[in-house]
Design goal:
Layout (H helix, E strand, L loop, with lengths): L2 E13 L10 H7 L8 H15 L2 H4 L4 E7 L2 H10 L7 E5 L9 E7 L3 E9 L10 E8 L4 E8 L7 H26 L5 E6 L7 H6 L2 E2 L2 H6 L5 E3 L12 E3 L2 E3 L2 E6 L9 E3 L5 E3 L27 E8 L2
Parallel strand pairs: 1-2, 7-8, 9-10
Antiparallel strand pairs: 1-16, 2-4, 3-4, 5-6, 6-7, 8-13, 10-13, 11-12, 14-16, 15-16
Helix pairs in contact: 2-4
């Protein structure tokens, strides 16, 4: 019987430490300014409770085997989330690295330590004049000893304008493609690599297609000599599906990309065809924001993004 893993990603919307946190660097405090005012321990606790309550519904109430998170400030808040997930009975462990992002928001992973070991972690810097978010690469080993590389992404936002900020996402896409190729060179051409995250662009945008090499058609991914990704979100395009909504219009910013080693029929670790999903709290048609950081707070909210999930199988 093959093993089956549920792998998820969620932009947790400003999961910040408290306003008076001693763990915050001064440059981050200056960048946040008054936005952090009023972010009390009680509000952080409520935010953690809401995020955890939704994660606990994933995978049929068993929780994900691996979940990538972005827009979190530090390992402290990820550890609070881990503690809040204790009712699942999972042996979750944390991978996190502080980035040099001006607002201090990072990418992290929670993973079931009974199913995966961490072989190595890497922070890949996106080079631009101003500090930005990194791409967090984790080389996981399954309990059967097989390697699965996952790259967590949170690309530069569209603030300041979509076209004005597009070059920064192109840089991020090129960085992802470079380290995908590098991972194959170092670990072997048959290494399965999965990239997921909030890309702040659509699957058809240049940053994903021309720079990250995230394509729509399996045939080109499987036959090409270049290190292409297959973008699993394309089947959800065009039917009103979205993970982030702007002016009530859906955007498919949160995506999962896999290389051919997760698609080939004889691969020991494979993506289950058609298993990618957008996960929504309850029956909500659009994300329910929790808010904070200068925006109105809804303590019954969760995040301004929906989560996404894919199923990966491993042979005996």
């Amino acid at each position: 019987m093959p093993s089956q893993y549920r792998i998820a990603f969620w932009n947790a919307e400003n999961l910040f430490d408290t306003e008076d946190s001693p763990r915050r660097e001064q440059k981050v405090a200056r960048a946040l300014g008054r936005d952090i005012t009023g972010w009390t321990q009680a509000l952080l606790d409520r935010k953690i409770q809401q995020v955890a309550s939704f994660i606990q519904t994933m995978n049929g109430g068993r929780g994900p085997d691996i979940i990538g998170l972005c827009e979190i400030e530090n390992e402290f808040v990820v550890d609070l989330l881990k503690q809040a997930l204790a009712p699942l009975g999972r042996n979750y462990a944390i991978v996190h690295h502080d980035t040099q992002d001006n607002r201090g928001i990072d990418v992290a992973f929670l993973y079931d330590d009974n199913k995966f070991n961490v072989e190595a972690t890497f922070n890949h810097f996106i080079m631009r004049r101003n500090a930005t978010r990194d791409i967090l690469q984790v080389n996981f080993l399954t309990a059967k000893g097989r390697r699965l590389i996952i790259m967590g992404n949170h690309w530069p936002s569209r603030s300041g304008g979509e076209s004005e900020s597009a070059p920064y996402r192109a840089m991020a896409g090129e960085t992802l493609a470079y380290f995908h190729e590098r991972a194959l060179e170092v670990n072997g051409a048959d290494t399965p690599v999965l990239a997921m995250g909030d890309f702040n662009d659509e699957p058809f945008d240049t940053s994903l297609v021309n720079y990250a090499l995230g394509l729509r058609t399996p045939k080109k991914v499987l036959s090409g000599r270049n290190p292409y990704f297959l973008n699993l979100m394309w089947p959800l395009m065009g039917n009103g599906e979205g993970t982030f909504f702007f002016d009530e219009a859906p955007n498919l910013f949160d995506q999962i990309l896999v290389n051919k080693n997760l698609v080939l029929p004889n691969s020991p670790i494979r993506v289950k065809t058609g298993s990618v999903k957008i996960l929504r709290p309850g029956s909500s048609l659009t994300p329910i924001r929790f808010g904070g950081m200068g925006k109105p707070i809804n303590q019954d909210g969760f995040s301004d993004h929906f989560a996404i999930e894919v199923t990966v199988t491993e042979a005996r």
